[in-house]
Amino acid sequence: MLLPDSRVYVAGHTGLAGSAICRRLEAEGHRNLLLRTHTELELTDDGAVERFFAAEKPSHVILAAAKVGGIAANAAFPAEFLSVNLRIAANVIESAWRHGAEKLLYLASSCIYPRLTPQPIREEALLTGPLEPTNEAYAIAKIAGLKLCQAYRRQHGFDAIVAMPTNLYGPQDRFDPEAGHVLPALLRRFHEAKETDAPDVTVWGSGSPRRDFLHADDLAAACLAMLRGYSDEMPVNIGSGGDTSIRDLAFLIAEITGYRGAITFDSSRPDGTPEKRLDITRITALGWRPAIDLRSGIEQTYRWYRENCARETATV
Ligand code: GDP
């Protein structure tokens, strides 16, 4: 059972999802968080992971560490996205089980569903069709991680559960115009265009793809609900329950950042999956609801970006 003094290891605690999960755990009185930065613990190194688990023996493990990136980074570095994420999952799941962890929560991703699948996407759609080519390497690694959780549960009775988060955003995201995901990339691009009075901002693709955006703080609440109340091999979708076109997102971000110039859609850039709205029946049955609407979530994220990143990125 997850108690305030449980030894909880959050792998990936400096990232978007992991940092939100830590904030939530701390806010709920958890005082025994085990955290290691990437420099302190290389999760692709099986020996290092094994030694860490042998020494620290966490009772709960949240696997939020991954090599992640937007549509361009996925297409450019498939070898790393596949290899790094496979090794992280294999090492952490094996060591957690071997050293007696009571429960492990693995964060997969909505991009592992087939490219064309009925909306909203139910968990049962997994592996029913071909994947989206722009993020196939990442998706295959995440599917393998999910299958590892199911295999350790079946073979060893290990209580490994899987969350399927949608497109996340929030503080600690990567506000990188090339390698980042769409929401942080556009926040930065529109912010810089506003600051420099640029006449035009380019948005990739046609603007018609639809994405289901969820604030990382909402994801964190859902992860805790799963740790406390879920134990089954079926993965659980975590989404907002709605979706937004990239075009509408761009106009919303322009409004929030105060940018008044033109917006151009560059159709030479890939659109990726046309839509991926998640069915959230399973997670809402655990009593969870998203609490942060898209506009106020972006406003809060934009404040965080201005306070923490805008000065350093403005000179890049
Ligand atoms: P995806 O959900 O895996 O496709 O991840 P992304 O967040 O990278 O992209 C979502 C959608 O936003 C795709 O249709 C992109 O073409 C579109 N998009 C528009 N502008 C940008 C941008 O500046 N960066 C990224 N990453 N995507 C963009």
Automatic annotation (TrEMBL):
Keyword Ion transport among record annotations: no
All copies of domain NAD-dependent epimerase/dehydratase, residue ranges: 8-239
Pathway the protein contributes to: Nucleotide-sugar biosynthesis; GDP-L-fucose biosynthesis via de novo pathway; GDP-L-fucose from GDP-alpha-D-mannose: step 2/2
Residues binding substrate: 189, 204, 211, 271
Keywords: Isomerase, Multifunctional enzyme, NADP, Oxidoreductase
Top enzyme class: oxidoreductase
Protein name: GDP-L-fucose synthase
Organism: Oceanibaculum indicum
Gene: fcl
